[in-house]
Amino acid sequence: MHLVEMNTPDFSASQPPHEGLRALRARAEERRRLVTQITADKSPEEVQRLVQELQVHQIELEMQNEELLLAQAEAEAVRAQYLDLYDFAPAGYFTLSAHGLIRQLNLRGSQLLGSVRQRLTGRRFPLFVAPADRPRFADFLAQVLRAEFRQSCELAMLRDDGTSFFAQLEGVAVQVPDGYGQHEPQCRLAIIDVSARQAALQELAASEARFRQLFEQTSDAIILVQSNVVIDCNPRALQLLGARCKSQLVGFPPWEHATPLLNGQPRADVFALGVAEALRHGSRRAEFTLQRLTGEVAWVESVITPITVSGQPLLHIVWRDITAAKHAAEQLRTSKEQLSLALPGSGTGTFAWYQSTDQVQWDERAQAAFGFARQAAVPTAAVLRRLHPADAPAVQAALQAAVASREPLALQYRIIWPDRSVHHISAAGRVVVDGAGQVQGFAGIVMDVTAQHETQQALRYQSLLTQRMLEAMPVVLARLDAEGRYLEALGQGLHNLGLANESLPGLKALDLFPAPAEEIARLQAGERVEFDNEVDCQGRHYHFHSYAYFDQERRQTMLLAIDVTPLEEQKQQLRREKEFNESLLDNSVDGIMAFDQHGCFLAWNRVLERRTGRLEAELLGQNLFAVFPEWQDKPQEQAIRQVLKGKRLTRYNMPFHTQPGHYESHLVPLLGPDNQVKGGLVLIRDVTERVQLAEEATRLKLRQQQEVLSAILATQEEERKRIAEALHNGVGQLLYAAKLNLENRAPDAPYRRNTLSLLEDAIRATRTISFELTPGILEDFGLKIALEELGKRIPKHNLRIHLNLVGLDRPRPRPVEIALYRVVQELLNNIIRHAQASEAFIHVVHEGRHVHISVEDNGVGIGTGQEGAPPKGIGLAGIHNRIDLLGGELIIESRAGRGTIVTIELTIS
Fold this sequence. Notes:
Blueprint: H1 2-7, H2 11-14, H3 17-36, H4 44-87, E1 92-97, E2 102-105, H5 107-113, H6 117-120, H7 134-146, E3 151-158, E4 164-177, E5 183-193, H8 195-217, E6 221-226, E7 229-233, H9 235-241, E8 261-262, E9 265-266, H10 267-281, E10 284-291, E11 297-309, E12 312-321, H11 323-346, E13 349-354, E14 359-362, H12 364-369, E15 377-379, H13 380-385, H14 392-405, E16 409-416, E17 422-433, E18 439-448, H15 450-471, E19 475-480, E20 486-490, H16 492-496, H17 509-512, H18 517-524, E21 529-537, E22 540-550, E23 557-566, H19 569-586, E24 591-596, E25 601-604, H20 606-612, H21 616-619, H22 624-627, H23 635-644, E26 649-652, E27 663-671, E28 677-686, H24 688-743, H25 752-773, H26 776-781, H27 783-792, E29 800-806, H28 814-835, E30 839-847, E31 850-857, H29 874-885, E32 889-894, E33 900-907
Helix pairs in contact: 3-4, 24-25, 24-28, 27-28, 28-29
């Protein structure tokens, strides 16, 4: 053993294991060569030493073999542990190629994508990313492959069954040998399902939005206080204090706007006491006055509630404006005081009936009104017996209805006193209820109105007597106050006018019977005057001879008017015709103006008054060009001149006024009896609604065209996909098989090289056509990447392409994306095939709802057909059809030898 230790080299300490193994193998080969040599010339000591060295090396090999077996077992255990950790890890692990192909994944990754690993390996990872997030994933993958450290992002993912989840992606780039001495860049990707966290964040955001909405839109003023300083407030707090912005409240103490003293104590001390009370009991309610920034004082009910937000103590303070309630209470108190003073002076008494005792309690004035002696309380039955038999049923029914409906009651009725005299009572009151809403009784006021009733009866009799006398006479007898208003008017003369006796009081007398100023002056001087009046009433005209004089105290005027003759029917007819014409103009829905042969206004109806702000009274007789100088040397003046020459015209959107909308004007000459033009008439009709309906029909037609476009494009893309698959899987495979067959034949066949070259060109052309028919990159990575790839596929020695792509990262409808790609593809094909150009510039810009496409080349240009129309070809016809279906505009500018510019403008709805 000692020899073994002395001669065993320490490979682990001096050199790597594989280097030690190579050295050991070399020494063993050397010993084997020595053993195979003839040892006849060797001494016994040398032979023995040689045998001993061989034995030592044999023991070393056996020990190293045992160490290798142990290392292999340990490596297998570690690998099994790694596989368990890899497959059963809570996160999904993926290995992606630089193009996003899934090379390897663990069990959790297949569970996240909802399929088995065998079906997922080799598929494109972007297919499991939500379409809206695929551009973000493409940027993320490119950033991972470029960066030297880990990258992270969050995306919306799709499972194989179409369900979605939200995932957090962590990626790092690695270099993997490809077996040909090169290294392929790959992405090691870890995925964690964070749908629950995202849902929690969304719920938290929604909760915060609801709180903010409640905070901002509540009808109460709310402020948030921290460390005795206002940190936030809602709009109602600004309104309550009369502030314009939050900076007038935020940053100040909450008692800043309170009145200088609260209950005789400093404001800060009162607030500190309120906060301490709120901390002890959970909240504190109090009332105080504050001074608005406008100087007004308001009463506020305050509720202080301590809260904790993110571990920080806050005070949630609610202010409710109770100024109106305070004022109402003060007014009620004042009203009660005034009522207590007014009732005795008016002779009004108060009463109250209580259901529990069935008695009426009243004051002295109420007792006297019912003829009772001094009794503070009287049984209800005793009071009811005083009612007049004819009025008792109605009074009791009204009381029962008031109790049932709990509505106020007011009525008049008669009672009979013990001396059999009849008295008239006026009463009012309402039901009394307790806190639970139960009826307790009835309370109100009563007043004896017998004297007033008798006075009214006497006056009514005298008035009726006078009225009967005057009804048989064609006169009007009236009394007027000092201002000339009717106090009373009677007589058959009123009936001739179609007026009732009670229709004139309150009206001005001379409005009905106008008088000359001289007679009125004489009347005011105290003389008796006579004058004639013409009265117009209900379409008939009357002539009155009137007498007027003052009473003895000169407080009122007496007027006697006698109907003597009707007025002339011809004047009435002329007045009615004029009123009819004015009504016809003013009630027309169209604007109407008329002018004479000199251009002076004859009519201007109310529609034009509203639309121009110019009144008819200020325009009649004025020259229309002097009133509206902006019409001179304009289409308005030309149209008016043509009408005065006898032409009938219709003009659309001719601005005779400044109101917005769409209008059409009809101009008609006005002819006299001799058929000569005496003026003109203009009818201005509002056709805004009709134009809007036409525009809506256009928009509907456009939407229908968009739907047709979607169906057409979808059908085209499906057909392209079918043809591409047929080319790839059918023709392509047949061509490739033919190539393999030729390659396996004798290499000296004379046609072999040319045939292989033709087959190679055919396979390449088939692949190119298949890609152009169905570019998968458009679906996977979007329009921007697809257009960039389209430009890369064109050899630069054939055509240099300059791309300017702006705003293509935002989403667009899939039919629009396909149409834009096909249009650019077809324009590039036309340039390559026909333009003989060396350079092309492609601009695709998406801003807002508008997409602008400009394709320019330096080729030979496009020849024009008849009348400058562009040539008709399959390519340009297809582009025209796509742009027309999208509702866009296509402009082609081309000059021979100077290239072509194709411009397309689209609006995305």
